[in-house]
Amino acid sequence: MKFRDHVVLITGASSGIGAALARELAREGARLVLMARRRERLDALCTELAPAEAVAHVGDVTRRADLDAAVALAVERWGRLDVAVANAGFGVVGPLAKLDVADYRRQFETNVFAAIETSKACLAELTKSRGRLVLIGSVAGYISTPNASPYAMSKFAVRAFAEALRPELAPQGVAVTLISPGFVESEIRQVDNRGGWHSKAKDPLPSWLPMPADVAAKKIVAAVYRRRREAIITFHGKVLVWLARFAPGVLRLAMRRGVRGRSEAKP
Question: Is 127 within the bounds of a domain?
Answer without folding.
Answer: yes
